[in-house]
């Protein structure tokens, strides 16, 4: 009899323990029932993201750095992809960004400062009856003031001198046409300015990966957020990687941008390893099956070596998943020569594939487009023309030059 009672007690205890385990196991998988509305659960960072997660027990083990971990090569989507989270992304109110085509035309008025300095300034000078040496010097100064750069300025002045001489008398229309042509040649119509996101797909289904680099304050994080909108507007799905772990607000800022267009943001612990976050972002992107993973990186320029180590590492680690499609350098157009110095430093650190020039709305120095392309030998792909969510425009040489000289 005693044995029977003992057996019943043991059975009750065992059943109780098992059901407790099941409940707590389920709880883990569930989204918290009443997350505060200001921070939707779906964009909560995966707990302690770290590299090689699926290859090891996620608990207890001390966090390891990227170097210490053997990274898996191309991985199949993990069977335990966070399906609930992926679906829940649809939950918040999602905005529909403006189409990207024609954005530069829409925003052309924002280039008015550059237009007055560069376009109208040049046209006025070229319309003078006598184009003497002093006038040509003024034309040269106008171009230099607009940050076109010394070599391109000299080339342009030479070409204009030649063509004006051949032309003889000049009507305003002829002058405008001539200037348009020459400015277009300078800006370049042959560059491929599309933001590439397809390399990974060709190499086996990995999402396209775009890294955004640049010094803090240039508008890097804002631009990453706006670029997510550009991609979404073009019909692509996006995961954001908040690898700028050194600026506390950057991840929040990026997450907010992401939420607006339904893009999931992968975050890491504050001051955590940026490369680890970047790796996890691509991993998440793979699991969710999105088209593009956009990675915002840290832009501290205290020491070049530090930056070099960090950015180089982020890129190398991300490449464990597959090729990086684009490394976009964000430059603040208002910083002139300083921007060019930054461009040089970054180009030594990583292979820049495209330039994003921000704050072109706040400067008369639109000529920086020409100078920076010359400096790096890569095209300006996007330009920022305001603080509005859809004020990032694909760069179109014709629309840009037309805006400068006024049609
Ligand atoms: P980060 O430190 O480089 O990540 O810089 P943020 O993304 O935080 O941007 C710095 C400031 O620049 C913010 O106030 C942005 O709104 C502003 N900004 C970014 N792009 C543009 C632009 O194209 N035009 C203007 N006027 N402001 C911009």
TrEMBL record:
SUPFAM superfamilies: Domain of the SRP/SRP receptor G-proteins (SSF47364), P-loop containing nucleoside triphosphate hydrolases (SSF52540). It is found in: Cell membrane; Cytoplasm. Residues 36-45 have a biased composition (Low complexity). Its main location: membrane. Residues 379-392 form the SRP54-type proteins GTP-binding domain. GTP binds at residues 214-221, 296-300, 358-361. Residues 25-97 are annotated as: Disordered. Belongs to the GTP-binding SRP family. FtsY subfamily. Part of the signal recognition particle protein translocation system, which is composed of SRP and FtsY. This is Signal recognition particle receptor FtsY. It comes from Streptomyces luteolus. The lineage of its organism: Bacteria, Bacillati, Actinomycetota, Actinomycetes, Kitasatosporales. The gene is ftsY.
């Amino acid at each position: 009899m005693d044995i029977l009672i003992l057996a019943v007690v043991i059975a009750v205890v065992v059943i109780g323990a098992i059901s407790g385990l099941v409940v707590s196991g389920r709880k883990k998988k569930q989204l918290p029932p009443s997350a505060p509305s200001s921070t939707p659960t779906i964009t909560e960072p995966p707990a302690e993201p770290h590299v090689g997660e699926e290859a090891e027990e996620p608990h207890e083990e001390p966090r390891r750095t990227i170097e210490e971990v053997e990274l898996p090569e191309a991985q199949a989507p993990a069977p335990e992809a966070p399906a609930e989270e992926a679906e829940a992304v649809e939950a918040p109110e999602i905005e529909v960004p403006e189409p990207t085509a024609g954005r530069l035309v829409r925003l052309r008025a924002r280039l008015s400062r550059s237009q007055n300095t560069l376009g109208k300034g040049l046209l006025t000078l070229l319309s003078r009856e006598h184009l003497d040496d002093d006038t040509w010097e003024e034309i040269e100064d106008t171009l230099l003031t607009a940050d076109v750069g010394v070599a391109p300025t000299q080339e342009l002045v030479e070409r204009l001198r030649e063509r004006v001489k051949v032309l003889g008398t000049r009507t305003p229309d002829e002058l405008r046409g001539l200037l348009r042509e020459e400015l277009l040649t300078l800006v370049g119509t042959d560059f491929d300015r599309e933001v590439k996101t397809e390399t990974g797909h060709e190499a086996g289904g990995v999402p396209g990966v775009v890294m955004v680099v640049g010094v803090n304050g240039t508008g890097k994080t804002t631009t990453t957020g706006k670029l997510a909108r550009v991609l979404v507007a073009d019909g692509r799905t996006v995961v954001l990687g908040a690898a700028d772990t050194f600026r506390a607000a950057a991840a929040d800022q990026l997450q907010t941008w992401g939420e607006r267009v339904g893009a999931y943001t992968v975050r890491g612990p504050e001051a955590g390893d940026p490369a680890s976050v970047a790796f996890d972002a691509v991993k998440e992107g793979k699991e969710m099956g999105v088209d593009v993973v956009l990675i915002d990186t840290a832009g501290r320029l205290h020491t070049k070596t530090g930056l070099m180590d960090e950015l180089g590492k982020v890129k190398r680690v991300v490449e464990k998943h597959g090729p990086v499609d684009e490394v976009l350098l964000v430059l603040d157009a208002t910083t002139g020569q300083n921007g060019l110095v930054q461009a040089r430093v970054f180009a030594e650190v990583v292979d820049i594939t495209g330039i994003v020039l921000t704050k072109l709305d706040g400067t008369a120095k639109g000529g920086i487009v020409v100078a920076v392309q010359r400096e790096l030998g890569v095209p300006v792909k996007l330009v920022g023309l305001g603080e509005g969510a859809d004020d990032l425009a694909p760069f179109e040489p014709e629309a840009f030059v037309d805006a400068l000289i006024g049609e």
